[in-house]
Amino acid sequence: MTSFPTFYSLDAQALSGVSVSWPLMCAPTESGTKGTRDSNTLKKPCRVLVVDDEDGFRDSLIFKLKKVYGATVEEAKNGLMALNKIAEVREGESFDLILMDISMPPGPTGIDISKEMLRRGAGGQIVLMSAYSTLEHQEEAQALGIILLPKPIDKDVLKNIILSCGGNTIS
Amino acid sequence: MHSRTDIKNTEPLRYDQAHPIAAILQTRLGVSFAILALAHLTTTFESPARISWILTVYIVLTVLLVLLFSTVLDRKRVRAIPILFDLLAISLILGSSGGLESPWFLLYLFPTMSASRYLGPTWTVMIAVLSALSYGTASYILAGDSVLASYLFWLSALTLGGVAFTAANLVKTKDRAEARLVKAVEQIDREILRNTDLTRVMGLILKAAMDVTDSDLSAIVLVDGEKITGTFSASKRLGKDTPGGWEQDKSEADRLVQQHYRQVLRSQEPLSLPEQNFTTFFRRNSPGRGAHWPGRLVPMKTEETPFGVLGVFSRRRLHLFTPNDLRKLSSMSSLVAIAHKNAKLVRDLAARELEVKERLQMLYKIGEQLKAEQGLDQVFQDVVALVSARIGSEEAALFVPDDQEEGIEKVAVSGPDEETTSRLYELERSYQGGKSLTWQVFKSKESRLENDIPLHEAYADVYSKQLPSRTARHYMGVPLLIGDEVLGAIRVLNKKAESYSPQTGEAKLAEEGFTQDDFELLTLIATQVASAIRNAKFIERNRYFENLVYNSPDPIIVLDKEGNIKNFNKECEKIWGLSESNALNQPIENYYESAEHAKEIGRALWKAKDHTIRDYNARIRDVDGKIIPILLSATLLLDKADQIIGSIGVFKDERDMLRLQEEKLRDEKLAALGRVAQTTGHDIKHDIATIMNYLDTLEEDPNSDPDTLHAYSAIRGATMAVLNKMQNLLMTAKPKAPQKQIVSLKDILMEFEASVAHQASVAHIMFSAKYPECDAYVLAEPEQMRQVLANLFGNSLDAIKAARAKDQRSAGQIEFELEVGKDLVLLSWRDDGCGMPEEAQRKAFTAFFTTKNSGSGLGLFITKTIIENHGGHITVEPAGASGICFQIILPVFQDNLHAIPS
User: Do you find a cis peptide bond into A106, omega within 30 degrees of 0?
Assistant: First the structure.
């Protein structure tokens, strides 16, 4: 665990000093699971923006975020709407986490939107999702220091990300 | 050639040159004067005056008779009239001179002899009888009768008869001799006509010469200019006397003839041999006796030109060669001349025939050699080699028009030796207009023969330097003509002398240069060469086209005007399933669907514009009788007179096109399906993701009872299985390069073990894993690694189910073990399922291969693809009693920061 590839260092920066290690993403240890279950107290509701053009998936994810993590969730059907949401956000109510699909035809891709968000300096951890990610997507995400998760999203990985963004589980 | 007239003209047998009328007059007048003189000289006559009167009347009547009947007296019978006159006159004289007592009856001998000479033996006897009767009658009438007189009469009559017989016999003998001679001459004529060997003809002539002169040895010397061309000798009787001595006599005769012929030729007179004297006459049986035999040498001449000597020799010491003999011998000279001339003619003819034959043979050989089976270049080479060999020239070269048709180009050359040839070849490869003799020959289409080329003639000096003879003096150039078209020219330089030999350095040229014969020969060869070149060109072109047609990627068929197959190319062979040799010359209607269909196509072709049809829907029948649809494009072939000479057809196998269309369609369908699979696949993944999100939420419900949780777990397992299958499908439709990360294989395995634990327990499967102490890091895409494990799990699950279907007591165990080495990790995955037959093991990783009823045949294929994309390796082998073991080897990630690209 002593050495991480550059990608993860950048990742760590992007997560504002919160360390998200790959074992957590890939294979949650017993202790990790227990740890999260133990610290199950909700300090403040985590603000999450879910951007996806797939209604079913978006609804299910919002349902899960609300039920399991008690998060405050905003949704956007496409990238432009997401940018509007961010722009409309009031002071002190910025999103902690933005979960965004890559492919949202006919609009711009999640990667393009991420670039724009980063450019605008909007707060919040951006995490990209894709049912079918190409190597180019992977490389671009890596270059931006953004995590790219395959759909369906592993529940433990999601949990770790939520926790790292200051969120918590309800139960 | 001889004709009968030639021989007649020579008139070899004319012994009596005098005119019969003149002869009659001469003899009668002579005899009459002799009688007159005798009558006056003898005193015993009672009345010589009366005899004078009788004779005077006789002479007058004879003259009148001769004058009156001169034109008819040549005839044998009319010749008897003067003789009858004679008889009358003699009878009158006899009567007046004393009747039976007078010896004047002997006068009757005169007409008797005359008859023998003119009228032959029969008439001689008849005249003798007439004489005797006349004598008797005259005596009886004029002188009275007596006993003595009757005896005298009979005696006189017998005397006359005897003389007549003798004369007749002599004439007969003479006739026989002449007949023999005529026969001999005829035989000789025949032999000459038959072109018999000269020796044999000469032998016959010599035999005839001996025959007519009754001699024993004869010889001929023929002189042609200064040269003796031959002596021939023959002997008739010698062999019998002295066996073995013949040759000696013969050579003796030859020697004598050789010795004396010049003298005879000079004098042109017969010569007697030897100079007879008493010494030689009495020398008997001495060696070389032939030398002393009497002989005659007669010059032989035609039109005063002596050409030889004919000699005869007799072994009898006293042999009378009469002048007549000599004349006969002389007359033989014409025979010899004819025979000689004929032999010469025959020889010349034979020589010419031989020459013609040789020339024909040579031309045939040239034709053979130049048979256009070979390529043009070879023909050119052969031509020059042949020409220089046949003509005997120092150099021979062949020129053809160059590609630009502006000049002529030297395409082959032949010199006296190889080295010179190669040097000569480099000389003046192409001749431009107006610069050389050969160009002029080519341009004017006229052959040239120059035996004294001036040195300043263009190129002559250039050639002089290269040729061994150091000159370019003799020249012959002949255009290669076919009709009016000139295909090139052959040129030869320098006629070689007999002694010419490049090996010995002797390079002498023939003084006279090329002869007219050479010129003609070259012209002849040129015609052969021209046609050979034309043939070769034609054949080359023909071959080119045949090749083109035969190897065409499209089936091409050529028919003659009767509709028989003349060309059947490779593609045709394929379509019909017939070899060209079987199809050639067969009527095409046998190969179309039906004869009616063939006729229909023929009509369509005839009616079509330009007699050309395109993409006509036709049907052919292959060797198995199968009907094949084709698209036929065909045209009629017409000659210059617009007469049909055949047709040519190119076609396409419509089955190919249909097949191609089908393939294209299928590919398009597959591609569309692939696209659909891709999009649908992702949609499905979204749907699964949705299910999973809800499931995650439900599972987090703390109030759920264990049964509900169990149900959630089952849903999760089934959904994951769907997801995995979807992944395989997507990977196959569009393989994806792994997005590699450094991962702990141990973690992945443990996570996987946990994720399928529930599923395994539901299926009553003992699922156990062995991990090493230390972790193993590999560079891999976790998702794909999970897919590999899911595939192996699915495979084992199915195998165990299959085993249980056979045997309920089957255990159902899956074990996997991870071993970590320095560079490699080994993952062994073992189950005790139904196992795999050996055949299936070999094909296990092949796409779409499955032994299961419901399998897609993709799982293990994708597994292998993924492992190999990660630089690893997977094998399968039987394990335990029935199970199977997969072994996966992956390279270990070397724990080195510098190995990771930043």
Answer: yes
